[in-house]
Structures are given as structure tokens and as C-alpha cells.
């Protein structure tokens, strides 16, 4: 066993309770990569306002999505963890299927051949990257590919993962061989998987008047300071529209999940949907290309809250296109991205 692949996502509370949400938010929102307000000021705001108030407000939303998938799909626990675990299982199967057996006629598993180990870790909450790397090392892994499941790089997400890798490296005498995927927004198989998901959705339900591509937002100031996220989101949207041959007036890019008082990337998803409903747009399909797994921000904020924004403003048909989750074409993209990081001639 030599190579290990670690799929990473943001994380989620251990339970949909205010206590567990508080614990998760403390970990997440204390990271200086996520909130760049000077530490003493932010610690005061976090401890006086955010952590005492937000968990009670957000826990019911987590309860709504817990154990629930779209279209009656059997999901257990928090959807982001459920789908990440499915991605691990399916990637493991794909890599095992092509692992080279040690002796002719033997499967890689039976022969103890050089097949890769796939695991996942969460930036916040459990399992942590440090624990996952230590566990895989005990199992014999010496080379690691870390794939942050964020197609578009942002310092707030992928940057935070690089920090955690750096911390592991600093604490090691024999530094592990770790490769981190920076971004994959322009990978043709990722764009193809997104386009397939839109096409299949349209075959099932018909095409809406507009396709709204809603990305998780970040503060606008981060872009001015050099974060390439906005550019990569726009690039993703343009490539997806081109793959679908959509005329420019049939799609729009927006940003969701605003947090705090600062200005975030615009146009905002919620405002756009209200404006469209008021302007007489009757039907909308919404896709969230920055989310590789369905989670609170898609299943609640997009599929429930923003549906209400659009319908209450006068719209009539609103359909959310699920994240790529455990789709075969998504796993094909993930496999290709990971393989590009595995040295040629190295048996997995
Ligand atoms: C405080 C600022 C935040 C930044 C910057 C931010 C960037 C960012 N986040 C994601 C992906 C996800 N975020 C999720 C939840 C979530 N995000 C924030 C705040 C920021 N995100 C909060 C406070 C929360 C928790 C919920 C809430 O209290 O509103 C999730 C879902 C996790 C789950 O449990 O389902 C994801 C995924 C990206 C991609 C991103 C920047 C590009
Ligand atoms: Fe977020
Ligand atoms: Fe949200």
C-alpha cells in the first residue's frame, strides 16, 4: 500500500442540535482564513453575538436536512458527510478495478497488491485531516493526494486546507509526500458532469426560462486582495453555458450564503430571484456548481428558502438541480483529477 487519496470537504455539526452547531461554528469561524476581521475584534463578536445566537437559529435548519435527501433518496446523518462517504466508496471501487494484480490472474485486493486507499477528511469537525493522515500512515500509506472538493479555489476553503497540510508537514520529521489539488473548475470532465446533470434534469422536467448558477459567496474585499475565486466562478459559468449552448440571456451567475455585514460578491442569489419573480420570469432552474455535495447551503438555502423568495415574488416554477454528489460522471472527473497527481509508472 503506497498511495492514499483524501477527499476533503468543509465539515458539518456532529448532530443537528444547538450545542453541536455551536461547537462546529466555533471551530470553523475561528479560522483566520474564513473571517479576516482582526482577531481581538472578531473574537469579541464571535463570543458575544455569533456563538450565543446563531446555533439556536441554524440548528432547526440542520434538523430539516438531517437524514433527508432530495426526491426521497435514503440519506443518513448530515448530507455533506453522507455524499462524501459515497464518493470515497465509489472512488475506491474505481481505483481497485484498475489496480494491477501482483500475479497474473489475481485481483489486487486478494494479492495485497499496490492498490490505493481512499479516505475523506473535513476541514472543520470530524474526521480531521491530521487524524486521517496518521491513520493512513499506520496502514502503510506514504504518498498522499489531497483533493479539496472545491472546484473553485478560495483562500477561505482550499487555502485553509493548505494551512492544515502545512501544519502536518511542520510537525513531521519524515515529511510525507503530499500533493494538494489547487482547483479543478476548468477540468473538462467536471464541466461535462455539470452539463450532463442539467441536460438530464431538463429531460425529466423540461427546461426553465432561466438557468441560475448560484455559487457560495465570499467577501468582495477578498477578491481585491487577490483571491481568484470570482474569476474561477465566472469561468465555470461561461464554460457550462457554452457546453449547453445557452444564449447569454438564458443564464445568470449569482452568489449565495452571505454572512455578516460586509459587502459580498454580487449579484446576490436571493435578490436576483425576487427581482426575477417580480419581473415576470415564470420558471427557473438553479444549479450550485461550487458544491460537490448537497448540504445545508443547497438543500435548505437554495431548495427551500430561495424557492419561497421566487414564488412569493410572483414566480411559478422553481427547480433545484442536485449537486454532483455520487454521480458516475462526477466520480469519473474526480478519478481523472486524482490520477493526474499520481506519478506515471507508479503502481497506484
Ligand atoms: C463566515 C464566512 C464564510 C465564508 C467566507 C464561507 C465560504 C465558503 N463556504 C463554502 C461551503 C460551505 N459553507 C457551509 C456552511 C456555512 N458557511 C458559513 C460561512 C462562510 N462560508 C457558515 C457560518 C456556515 C454554516 C451554516 C450557517 O451557520 O449559516 C457549508 C455547509 C455545511 C453543512 O453542514 O452542510 C458548505 C459546504 C464555500 C464553498 C465557501 C467559499 C467559496
Ligand atoms: Fe460557507
Ligand atoms: Fe446559508
Automatic annotation (TrEMBL):
SUPFAM superfamilies assigned to the protein according to its UniProt record, in alphabetical order: Chelatase (SSF53800)
EC number: 4.98.1.1
UniProt pathway annotation: Porphyrin-containing compound metabolism; protoheme biosynthesis; protoheme from protoporphyrin-IX: step 1/1
InterPro entries the record matches: Ferrochelatase, Ferrochelatase_AS, Ferrochelatase_C, Ferrochelatase_N
Localization annotation: Cytoplasm
CDD domains: Ferrochelatase_C, Ferrochelatase_N
The keyword Transit peptide is assigned to this record: no
GO molecular-function terms, A-Z: lyase activity
Binding site for Fe(2+): 216, 297
Reaction(s) this enzyme catalyzes, per UniProt: heme b + 2 H(+) = protoporphyrin IX + Fe(2+); Fe-coproporphyrin III + 2 H(+) = coproporphyrin III + Fe(2+)
Taxonomy, superkingdom: Bacteria
Keywords attached to this entry: Cytoplasm, Heme biosynthesis, Iron, Lyase, Metal-binding, Porphyrin biosynthesis
HAMAP family: Ferrochelatase
Family listed: Belongs to the ferrochelatase family.
Function, as annotated: Catalyzes the ferrous insertion into protoporphyrin IX.
Name the record gives this protein: Ferrochelatase
Organism: Microbulbifer harenosus
GN (gene name): hemH
